[in-house]
């Protein structure tokens, strides 16, 4: 029983090792071919093909006041309706987070319980009829 378990673990370890090596090779290969936007760094106007934007100046002109957290009431929409919409969207978001965490927790619990079961089975005597 222990020999089969060890062989299975070694096979699984080797499979994981090869998978991680493939992933590393794949990511190393991708990292070698990252394009560089030299046009943005090139100060020569004749060679520059991408417009340089003054983001700070454009933002200050279009938004003279900093954004505030004061509620904005849209015409025709009541505050209670806005709260209802927000509550509905928040509940959907919360449920999405819960669903993602449940998958992670379930996998972890499954691993721990299977490990504990294997531990208990290893402690059992080989011959139960004695």
Task: Give an overview in words.
Residues 3-33 form a coiled coil. Keywords: Coiled coil. The protein is mainly alpha-helical. The chain has helices spanning 2-31, 38-41, 55-62, 79-123. The chain has four helices and no strands. The longest helix has 45 residues, at 79-123. It is elongated, with a radius of gyration of 30 Å. The chain starts with a helix and ends in a 7-residue tail after the last helix. The mean pLDDT is 73.
Question: How would you sum up this structure in a few lines?
Answer:
This protein is an all-alpha fold.
Write a concise keyword list for the protein shown above.
130 residues, mainly alpha, 4 helices, elongated
Write the layout of secondary structure elements.
Elements: H1 2-31, H2 38-41, H3 55-62, H4 79-123
Assign a percent range to the helix content. Answer: 55-70%
Oligomeric description of these chains: single chain
Radius of gyration: 30 Å
Specify the overall morphology: elongated
Q: What's the rounded overall pLDDT mean? A: 73
Q: Total number of β-strand segments? A: 0
The string of secondary-structure elements, in order, is HHHH
Low-confidence stretches: none
**Which range does the strand content fall in?**
under 5%
**Helix vs. strand class:** mainly alpha
Keywords: Coiled coil
């Amino acid at each position: 029983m222990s020999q089969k378990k060890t062989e299975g673990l070694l096979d699984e370890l080797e499979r994981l090792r090869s998978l991680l090596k493939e992933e590393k090779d794949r990511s190393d290969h991708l990292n070698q071919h990252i394009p560089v936007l030299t046009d943005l760094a090139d100060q020569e106007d004749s060679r520059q093909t991408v417009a340089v934007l003054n983001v700070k100046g454009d933002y200050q002109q279009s938004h003279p006041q900093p954004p505030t957290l004061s509620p904005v009431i849209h015409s025709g929409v009541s505050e209670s309706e806005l709260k209802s919409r927000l509550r509905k969207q928040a509940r959907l978001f919360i449920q999405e987070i819960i669903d993602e965490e449940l998958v992670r927790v379930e996998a972890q619990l499954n691993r721990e319980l299977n490990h504990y079961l294997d531990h208990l089975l290893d402690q059992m005597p080989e011959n139960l009829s004695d």
